[in-house]
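Researcher: Quick test of sequence recovery. Tokens follow.
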């Protein structure tokens, strides 16, 4: 009998396989203790695929990624493949997946676990209890707009050109994703652009307003200029619930929001595509961090970002809210118990390895039942 929930696991390179191993143990726990089963297939991406197949991802792996309900992705890259030409680099495997799966909405939660609030660079009271979600448009805007390039001018100067461009459909679909998510949270959505100086921002504001007022009347929509949003994120981040913004502003604002909550080793993410006729979305879940070549093979990596990415998968691809919340609660308890990997180590706490962090988390999950 199949579990009817299909996942393609792509551990990748560096610490990717190390953090994925701990994540698989959590999925196995769900199977045993909650009877939540998955059909899990595993594949190669990045340097691991280059070493075996000579390409950063094979057509077959891309096809599988398109077929499954969710892709669980570790990290790719490393010094071994750094000198390869751009189109062969390990990172091209991930970029190809994002492009072919048309993953246009990137979800980056910034959640501050109480036990880590003191480690934030902001005052504890500003980040204690923080739980915001940034939805960044991922496949359009200035990173992809044409014309682009560096040209030589008649007077000998050079000119670099990139074009910020958005269509109504591109804006509407990402705003829709963000509004759906807001609906499941505190029902507050803040749309961020620079409508004061950019026509694409004016269009963004108009379309966001149309989508939310006509389709999500229960969601409270506000608008903010991106520069103000950057300020507000460090002044009073708890005023936000869900933020939706374009590719460029989202890139910057999501990194700023992430650092409110501490280490790269704690940050999960999700990238979602459009719904098909059955209501299913293509989706890829991955930690924000890379392959961390400096600590690979030393049992030092923090597996929590990867495990929290899997919790996002349970919530957004499989509607398993209770299971997602249980994993997040177990992470909170482990941290409250003073257990830390090196990247989040604080004075007076117990420093543990990747595997011990995994063991401790499983014990907390057992307690939660
Ligand atoms: P990185 O995120 O791999 O590492 C940055 C720093 O954070 C390192 O000191 C690392 O040890 C630490 N770190 C990262 N994740 C950690 C974890 N889970 N636990 C403990 N410490 C952690 O970024 P980088 O050094 O700029 O890049 C290394 C390689 O990863 C490069 O080849 C880069 O291209 C690739 N990369 C891949 C992705 C991806 O696969 N999505 C993202 C970023 C970077």
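Model:
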């Amino acid at each position: 009998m199949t579990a009817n929930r299909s996942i393609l696991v792509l551990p990748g390179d560096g610490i990717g396989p190390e953090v994925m191993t701990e994540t698989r143990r959590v999925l196995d726990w769900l199977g045993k203790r909650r009877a939540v089963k998955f059909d899990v297939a595993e594949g190669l991406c990045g340097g691991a695929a280059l070493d075996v197949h000579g390409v950063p991802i094979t057509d077959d792996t891309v096809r599988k990624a398109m077929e499954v309900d969710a892709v669980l992705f570790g990290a790719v890259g490393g010094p071994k493949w750094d000198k390869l030409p751009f189109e062969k680099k390990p990172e091209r495997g991930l970029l190809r997946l994002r492009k072919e799966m048309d993953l246009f909405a990137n979800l980056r939660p910034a959640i501050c676990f109480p036990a880590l609030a003191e480690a934030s660079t902001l005052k504890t009271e500003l980040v204690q209890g923080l739980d915001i979600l940034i939805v960044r448009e991922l496949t359009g805007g200035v990173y992809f707009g044409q014309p682009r390039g560096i040209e030589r001018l008649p007077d000998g100067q050079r000119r670099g050109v990139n074009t910020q461009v958005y269509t109504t459909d591109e804006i509407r679909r990402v705003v829709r994703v963000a509004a759906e998510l807001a609906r499941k949270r505190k029902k507050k959505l803040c749309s961020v652009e620079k409508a004061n100086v950019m026509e694409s921002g004016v269009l963004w504001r108009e379309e966001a307003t149309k989508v939310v007022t006509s389709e999500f009347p229960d969601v409270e929509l506000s608008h903010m200029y991106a520069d103000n949003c950057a300020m507000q994120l460090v002044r009073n981040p708890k005023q936000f619930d869900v933020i939706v913004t374009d590719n460029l502003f989202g890139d910057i604002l999501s990194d700023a929001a992430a650092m409110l909550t501490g280490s790269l080793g704690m940050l999960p993410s999700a990238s979602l595509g459009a719904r098909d006729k059955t209501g299913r979305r293509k989706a890829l879940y991955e930690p924000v961090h890379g392959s961390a070549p400096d600590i690979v093979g030393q049992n030092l990596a923090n597996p929590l970002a990867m495990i929290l990415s899997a919790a996002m998968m349970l919530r957004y691809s499989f509607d398993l809210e209770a299971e997602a919340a249980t994993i997040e609660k177990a992470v909170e308890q482990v941290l409250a118990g003073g257990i830390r990997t090196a990247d989040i180590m604080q004075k007076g706490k117990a420093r543990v390895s990747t595997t011990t962090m995994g063991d401790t988390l499983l014990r907390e999950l057992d307690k939660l039942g």
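Residues 115 and 335 are 6 Å apart (CA to CA).
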